[in-house]
UniProtKB/TrEMBL annotation:
PROSITE patterns: AMP_BINDING. InterPro entries: AMP-bd_C, AMP-bd_C_sf, AMP-binding_CS, AMP-dep_synth/lig_dom, ANL_N_sf, ATP-dep_AMP-bd_enzyme. Residues 283-357 form the AMP-binding enzyme C-terminal domain. This is AMP-dependent synthetase. Pfam families: AMP-binding, AMP-binding_C. It comes from the Bacteria.
Amino acid sequence: MSRLRLVPGTPDGVLAALAGVLDGSGTPFAPVPSDPAAAARVHAAAQPDEPVEDGCAVVLTTSGSSGEPKGVLLSRDALIASATATHARLGGPGQWLLPMKPYFVGGLQILTRSLVAGTTPVLLDDSFTAAARRMTGGRRYTAMVPTQLARYLETDRDALRSFDAIIIGGASTPEPLKLRAADAGVTAIPAYGMTETGSGCVYGGVPLDGTAVDLDDGRILIKGSTLFSGYRLRPELTAEVLRDGWFRTQDRGELVDGRLRVVGRVDDVVISGGVNVTLTTVQARLLEHPRVEDAVVLGAPDAEWGTRVVAFVVVEPGGDDLGRDEVRDWVSQTLPRTWAPQEVNGLQALPMLASGKVDRQRLLEGVR
């Protein structure tokens, strides 16, 4: 077994290390962000002083949005399979613009696709429009999180329209945002996937070639060539989620006309006062409020309720915060009163991780 090499989590650092593991000349590596706290999480998850598991090319650290970060083992074959299947779905290889951090799987796979396609990735080191203008021709692709798409629809709409496809991942894409992109003539394709699946493996509800999706009592199961090999030095956790070739995700879904629809996480259903409450359903109702710009609903430990339902709400610019009673009344118009949040927190913006996901841990720390 070889040792794990730590490399700078910069586009140049990751690209060079990726080129080595893809052509067989390099050694397994883990990209390290410059932020000290993020770097410490990588060290804890990657454990560079220990030998690397056989077949590993890259160790990526999960974002830890709702739990302990883990080191995810990705093989050379999984990386290439993901890139190849993505190009096949999008219409062929092309040039990629990188607007994401390369030490997360979404950014890393943009660089992998570039290497597989034999094209030079374009870095976002100025405005999105200026970066798009540096694309050299042929098919043009990029990938980003929903927050970036919403921002660029306001500031760089023409540049967005110049791409053959824009993969949207890292978090659920709200329906209003999908409609805004479609109305603007932007080809935005919502993707479902995670670090353990080598980035997005289901595009627009349809699995990529080589990927299969199934459900086990509503839990999403994934099987295919892009799957990770396991968790770094965590064989017990690996055995828990990888069974007979299937990865048991923490997400719930349903199949509608053969397409996967993600409806929330397994832990999105909490028991509050003896009542089962689906947090994502409450969250979706809040997002229907005409003054709500963004919202997330979480469960927090509570001595009286067991788990209390807590809403974090961002209102439209210039608007007054929504009071607890107003929020509860709005939710109760279409959902059981027992589902209405017991606590409402108004925020200027939801805290986000570098991966583009809501920092749930930070939100819950503020209410405990």
